[in-house]
Amino acid sequence: MFKQFNKPLLALALAGLAMNAHAHRGWMVPSSTMVESKDAWVTVDAAVSDGLFEIDHQPLRLDALQVIGPDGAKVAPANTVTGRLRSVFDVKMEKPGTYKAAIVSQNVMASYKQNGEQKRFRGNEETFKKDMPADAQDVKITRTASRLETFFSNGETSTEVFKPTGVGLEFVPVTHPNDLRAGEKATWRFLVDGKPAANQAFSLVPGGVRYRGVLGEIRQSTDAKGEITFTVPAAGMYYLSSTWPAAAPAVAGQPPAMPERRMTYAATVEVLPQ
After folding, report:
1. Is the Cβ–Cβ distance between 205 and 238 less than 8 Å?
2. Coil, strand, or helix at residue 49?
3. For 260, which DSSP code?
4. Which of 85, 117, 174, 196 is placed for a possible disulfide with 187 were both Cys, Cβ 3.0 to 4.6 Å?
5. 123: buried, middle or exposed (CB in 10 Å: 19+, 13-18, 0-12)?
6. 143-163: string of b/e by CB count within 10 Å (b at 16+)?
7. This prediction's pTM
8. Alpha carbon of residue 23 to chain centroid
9. Residue 177: left (phi > 0), alpha (psi -120 to 50), or beta?
10. How far apart are alpha carbons 160 and 167 in whole angstroms?
11. Domains and CATH numbers, the chain
12. Is 46:62 a contact under the CB 8 Å cutoff?
């Protein structure tokens, strides 16, 4: 069973945004996670917000959006709009099974000195190789890989969209996230570069924080196989997040230690009533 804490989330990074209890989270929320219709569509809201699942800050950019269908093929989103506070897109689910909407990014962050001046770089691997000065000194590099996902199914669930890529921190559930029911047991698995993510901490935060007045965070860690079996909490939309590696202990008077690699994962999942 999960232990519940009313503590702020650990700092998480996704697409260059800090995601913790006092900062912004990027998220995607489908209009439905299970659709039963001959003409099956979902509309997905996508935003970066102060309040979880609230449209109160800025839209989530969809430049890197990919929608994957039950057969593993890409599906073109329709009616994509980016407004002042949120982005929206539709997905026509022509085939039965589970679809995944995902925004995946890989970036390089670096600090270095040139001619005695401290400088910083942020970009992708290609621009890093192109723009890093040959005379750069005291170079410190962190490579980041982030994933933001949500899932929705047409008529029935399927598992093709959970096939791991072997790159970064990935969520490969044993119990399907569109088949979570309050009070029942579920098993989830996390991978790092395709291998079991042992002792991987993750967080679940239920929506409706503004009405509860407390974060209501639920935290737990995987076993040596990168898996955890737990009792699914109350019905509702949840924000799942995890980061690798765990944050290093703070040292007084020193800036936070930056790992050579940093991976983050976040997703919106729905728990249905029993």
Report:
1. yes
2. strand
3. S
4. 174
5. middle
6. bbbbbbbbbbbbeebbeebbe
7. 0.84
8. 15
9. alpha
10. 17
11. 3-105+146-272 (2.60.40.1930)
12. yes
- The answer to whether the CB of 46 falls within 8 A of the CB of 80 is no
Map tokens 């994957």 to a residue: 68
Instruction: Return the SS3 of 19.
Output: coil
pLDDT of residue 107: 85
Using DSSP, state whether 108 is helix, strand or coil: strand
Q: Cβ of 135: how many Cβ atoms within 10 Å?
A: 9
Confidence of residue 142 (pLDDT cuts 50, 70, 90): confident
Q: How far is CA 194 from CA 102, 104, 160, 264, in A?
A: 18, 16, 16, 14
Q: Give the Å distances, CA to CA, from 206 to 90, 131, 178, 250.
A: 24, 42, 16, 28
User: In the chain, what percentage of residues exceed pLDDT 70?
Assistant: 88
Residue 210 phi, psi (nearest 5): -65, -25
Backbone torsions φ then ψ of 101, nearest 5 degrees: -100, 130
Q: Buried (b) or exposed (e) across 63-76, using 16+ Cβ within 10 A? A: eebebbbbeeeebe
Integer angstrom CA distances of residue 32 from 51, 99, 113, 172, 173: 21, 12, 50, 21, 19
Classify residue 212 as left (phi > 0), alpha (psi -120 to 50) or beta.
alpha
Place of tokens 């799942």: 240
8 A C-beta contact, residue 185 and residue 227 = no
Neighbour tally for 51: CB within 10 Å:
14
DSSP state of 165: -
Q: Which residue has the tokens 């897109």?
A: 89
